[in-house]
Amino acid sequence: MKASDYVANWQNSWVIANWKMNPSTQLTVTALMTDLQQQIPTDALQRCNVVVAPSFMHLSTTQQAIQHGSCNIGLAAQNLCAQHADKGAFTGEVSGAQLKDAQVNYVLVGHSERRQYFNEDDTCLIQKIRNAFAHDLTVVFCIGETQAQYEQNQTQDVLAAQLMVVKQLAAEFANTQLGNLASRLIIAYEPVWAIGTGKIPTIQEVQNIHAFINTTLTDIDASLATTPILYGGSVKADNAAEIAQCPNVNGVLVGGASLDATSFTQIIQAFAQI
């Protein structure tokens, strides 16, 4: 199947792989995708939406692996241009139009590493999401607090402020014919201090924060009550099953563990059981 043929079941759980700037070669990408497609049980894909987000350099290689495989796997990009949705003199950028042409279905926006290293603020993120929507890309919008904010009990205040991006977009949707925002948006909660550190909030904390995010989204617009809310941050095969049992956790955004086909398959199976 082509990546552009991918169809998600919005009622299913979600497992999204963020490969970041990994692996280093196309050969490794092809081997990883081959292993993954051989290991994922067919019935798991009927109950769990699986998406992979390779680097820009590896989008084509990953798309070809999806096309020549038999698994229903979605393709995501890790970023897109804020300045223009289609084309222009923006050296080093990739547009929403180019991503759509490359058979990309999803795009990550607002990841903490983009906020931290590239100083992406709400104005930038809103424009990126607009550009993604202009080409029918589903947005995985990442939010999360730092270690200092967590220790100062500011988590909810930080997340509420970050979700003002969604509030502005919801207002724009209400005044246009853009359709249903809830069907084009996924929220990924990633506490910054848990990303790649091996640390993880307690299950009760994860549960409470996801409930808070769901309530905040519902207060913004009742239709957003059905928006998938994923957890991210040191998700591994050995903690996936416990995370999967949390109310309001509709899936996970997986970093390092998604670079191992066996580990990633175990995470998928954990969320295919709920």
From TrEMBL:
Keywords: Cytoplasm, Gluconeogenesis, Glycolysis, Isomerase. The active site is at residues 111, 190. The keyword Isomerase applies. It is found in: Cytoplasm. It catalyses: L-erythrulose 1-phosphate = D-erythrulose 4-phosphate; D-glyceraldehyde 3-phosphate = dihydroxyacetone phosphate. The keyword Cytoplasm applies. Pathway: Carbohydrate biosynthesis; gluconeogenesis; Carbohydrate degradation; glycolysis; D-glyceraldehyde 3-phosphate from glycerone phosphate: step 1/1; Carbohydrate metabolism; erythritol degradation. It holds the Pfam family TIM. Substrate binds at residues 18-20, 196, 234, 255-256. Its main location: cytoplasm. InterPro entries: Aldolase_TIM, TIM_sf, TrioseP_Isoase_bac/euk, Triosephosphate_isomerase, Triosephosphate_isomerase_AS. Its EC number is 5.3.1.1. Coiled coil: none annotated. Involved in the gluconeogenesis. Catalyzes stereospecifically the conversion of dihydroxyacetone phosphate (DHAP) to D-glyceraldehyde-3-phosphate (G3P). HAMAP family: TIM_B (MF_00147_B). Homodimer. Belongs to the triosephosphate isomerase family. PANTHER family: TRIOSEPHOSPHATE ISOMERASE. This is Triosephosphate isomerase. It comes from Enhydrobacter aerosaccus. The gene is tpiA.
